[in-house]
Structure of CUB domain-containing protein:
Amino acid sequence: MATISVFRILTPLCLLILIIGLNDAKVGNDKYYMDKMCGNDHFVFDGDKQPGISLQLTSSSKYKKNFNCTVRFRTAQPSQRLIITIEKMDISDCPGDSLYIYDGTTLLNKDSKQQCGTPSPFTFTSSTTQISMTFTSNSAVESSGFQAAIALHFPMIASCPQNLGFFQCKNKNCISKQLQCDGRNHCGDETDENQCSILSG
Ligand SMILES: [Ca+2]
């Protein structure tokens, strides 16, 4: 009898743990802080349970003075590309403090209004397999920095089929379907987040 009772308790508990585990696997964004990754290469993997990256400059309320940090994001496959969307930027000491985003070695945010200040959200899709970000600050005023979403883009997959786990953005970027309706702008044009109220009722 005691054994049966233990099973009665343990079985629902195991199911609950399994359900929580499955829900965790659906979470599309892994959170990273750039100031903890300086000098690193970070691979963004296809099929990873977390195919999108949520990147903030720092976990603190303000970034450090006299700070210089470069992080490189890379695809594991040569056919893949990266989409970087700067969702928020708050770099008040402009241009003393600045963020530079490179596609391979090409500077993407050439417009100085996208390197610091508080610009509107903006996005780039890489033409190479790597995006590097360099942030520098001086000894004066600090602010919160920026928040970005990074996603894999699959340009070689024809028609970007939803039934095979992809989502085609209106701007033709092709991302993992797991990144749809998770509250973060992975497409760059927000179309992965536009239809969510309809989908969720
Ligand atoms: Ca998204």
